[in-house]
Amino acid sequence: MIFKKTAPAAPAPKYPGIPTAVDGTTSVVEMETAASEGAGAYPITPSTQMGEGWAAAVAAGKTNVGGRRLIFFEPEGEHAAAAVTAGLSMTGLRATNFSSGQGIAYMHESLYAAVGPSMRSTSTPGTTTITRSTTPASSSCSPRMLRNRPI
After folding, report:
1. Torsion, Cα of 84, 96, 44, 128 (10° steps)
2. 64 CB burial (10 A radius; 0-12, 13-18, 19+)
3. Which helix (H) or strand (E) holds 99?
4. What is the C-alpha separation between 36 and 109, in angstroms, rounded?
5. pTM of the model
6. pLDDT one digit per residue (tens) for the chain, 151 residues
7. Neighbours of 5 (CB within 10 A)
8. Which of 2, 70, 73, 130 is the most buried (most CB within 10 A)?
9. Dihedral through CA 90, CA 124, CA 61, CA 53, nearest 10?
10. What is the DSSP letter of 76?
């Protein structure tokens, strides 16, 4: 063959990044610690690892993209976690909260105070299914008993 086709060289990307594989929790922690300044989180499955990741970033002295050191509070419940996040936002910080679907359902009363003044905060739920049945599947109840239960 006299003529040989060659593919044109692709230009190098402007921001090449670091190729890596992580799970969703790690990616949330990486982005929230870069963008936010403070977090209030109560450990509740499945979002516990997000709060632990934030606490580890604080312990390591990590700063966000603005160069500010991170702040972390672990309160005694979901209501308090919502209040901590709202309080951090009231001081002008971009705050985040890590919770689960059940945790957000539990803290919903506290969220009204946070959304009223339009504060800058995010809530990152690690969600699981919220069911209305409180009877475990391994219970000795018959399906008929479950059908006749008031909701």
Report:
1. 140
2. middle
3. strand 95-99
4. 24
5. 0.66
6. 577 777 788 888 888 888 888 888 888 889 989 999 999 888 877 778 888 999 999 999 999 999 999 999 888 888 888 888 888 888 888 888 888 878 888 887 777 776 666 666 666 666 556 555 544 444 444 444 444 444 4
7. 5
8. 70
9. 150
10. S
Count of alpha carbons within 13 Å of 48, Cβ hemisphere only? 4
Q: Taking each helix axis from N to C terminus, what angle separates 24-35 and 48-59, rounded to the nearest 10 degrees?
A: 50
Q: Which of 30, 95, 94, 40 is nearest to 72 (CA)?
A: 40
Amino acid at 4: K
| CA pseudo-torsion sign 105, 100, 70, 75 | positive
Cα Rg for the chain, rounded, in angstroms?
Answer: 22
